[in-house]
Amino acid sequence: MFQYGWQFDDVRFCFRTCRKYDEMSDRVSAMPDTTEGLVQLQEYLRECQDVAQHQLKEEIDEAANRLKFFLDYAFFTSIHILPHKFLHLSVFC
After folding, report:
1. C-beta of residue 48 within 8 angstroms of C-beta of residue 20
2. 75: alpha, beta or left, given left = phi > 0 and alpha = psi -120 to 50?
3. Dihedral angle at the C-alpha atoms of 17, 23, 28, 31, nearest 10 degrees?
4. Can you give the pLDDT at residue 1?
């Protein structure tokens, strides 16, 4: 029987990476109420530029490598595709 566990892990990996970008975007889009909040936002932006940006790029590179592997080696027939035709993406979040 064909195993689908690797697919779910890869999709979850991609969604986690996307959620990290969304969280960063939400946080920097919020308008700080105080000067202290503005300073914290600047520190967060600096941390994102120095650390998070590079980590997320590595995760995106890993996801691209996984996709390349699947495109090179995985051949899916309609038997493999049809069970997932109506699968909703919220399952992976």
Report:
1. no
2. beta
3. 170
4. 38
**Of 62, 52, 48, 74, residue with least CA distance to 13:** 62
By the 8 A CB rule, do 92 and 13 touch? no
Nearest one of 17, 3, 5 to 93, comparing CA atoms:
17
> d(Cα 73, Cα 68) in Å, to the nearest integer?
9
Q: How far apart are CA 2 and CA 14, in angstroms?
A: 22
Whole-number pLDDT of residue 70: 74
Query: pLDDT tens, 40-68?
Result: 999 999 998 888 888 888 888 888 887 78
Rounded to whole angstroms, the Cα distance separating 11 from 91 reads 10
CA dihedral 36, 39, 44, 48 (to 10 degrees): 170
Tokens linked to 45: 């932006």
